[in-house]
Amino acid sequence: MRYVKWGFWLTLVLVVFGFFHYTLPQHDIVRIADTYEKRIDFGENSIFWASPDVGNATGGVNRDVFFIQTIKPNGKPMVYRNEDTGFGWPPYFKLDTSNLQTEATDLKSDKAAPQWVSITHYGWRNEFLSIYPNAVGVKPVSGPDVRIIPWVNIVILMALLILIFLIRRMWAQFRERSIDPVMEDVGEASQEARDKARGVVSRFFAWLGTWRKKSSK
Amino acid sequence: MFGAVRLAVFGFLFLAVIYFLVSIYSSSLRREKLEKKWDDDIKEGDRDAYISVGMKDYAGSLRKKLILLIFVVPVVVVVSLLYVTNFM
């Protein structure tokens, strides 16, 4: 039973951590090698793709998606997709996909004269599912060792902690003011019923006792 | 723009539920405070009348009006996110 409990909590922690790791923005320092677009037929990985550009028809089985090919400072490749999130999930409200693609193409550089950029993105790269993180913003930085403080994540996580604390307080208040008094009433009522029942029984025994007392006299 | 309309409608419904719950919570806190104050300090006169006067004051208070920020803040956040993500 203890292992079931551990398993439950471990799964919950993993799911919550995974959710935030996928959804919250992250910054990568990379060099843009090239940009391209490719038609994607969405399959079992369709949940990891966003939506068509805002205003276009939805529900098509395939569409062209922008991609940004980059090289990380350690020389390894990283490919980002570039899609509108529109007004859906995750709530980045990104509508400027084509503008972002233009900026990314403008910041292209080669190995000899690298122009390092910081790409803000969410999502995961996974070769087994053919999924790519979605680039949300791009801006040039001075070098590959720039340190970026994730203010947005700090603010979001703090706000969530405050929200959880508030919900706990609200629930405690609701319990104290609305549930506990009712439960007390129920408790009192059953106590009364028990007293009543005990009254009958004990009166009977008391009555028996009157005989005993008499007989013992 | 259908997505924006859908977000506005469901967002409003969601925020209305939150507003409802938070106003219950806030007025419950105030009522408890009034009850405690009467029980600890005042202890004379009509307890129910004291509390109902206090709750009437609360109904017109700034604190109760501030709960309306629940509808304002998310709209400001969404509009500023739209600006920061797309036009900055």
What's this entry about, in short?
Helix content of chain A is 45%, strand content 21%.
Topology:
The complex is a heterodimer of chains A (217) and B (88).
Chain A: H1 2-23, E1 26-41, E2 62-71, E3 77-82, H2 97-106, E4 116-122, E5 134-140, H3 151-216
Antiparallel strand pairs in A: 1-2, 1-4, 2-3, 4-5
Chain B: H1 2-42, H2 47-59, H3 62-66, H4 69-87
Helix pairs in contact in B: 1-2
What does this structure look like?
The complex is a heterodimer of chains A (217) and B (88). The radius of gyration of chain A is 32 Å and the shape is elongated. With 217 residues, chain A is an alpha+beta fold. The two termini of chain A are 61 Å apart. In chain A, strands 3-2-1-4-5 form a 5-stranded antiparallel β-sheet. In chain A, strand 2 and strand 3 form a beta hairpin. Chain A has a domain of 146 residues: OB fold (Dihydrolipoamide Acetyltransferase, E2P) (Beta Barrel), CATH 2.40.50. Chain A is built from 3 helices and 5 strands, in the order αβββαββα. Chain B has 88 residues and is mainly α. Chain B is 89% helix and 0% strand. Chain B is elongated. Chain B has one domain. At the A-B interface, helix 3 of A face helix 1 and helix 4 of B.
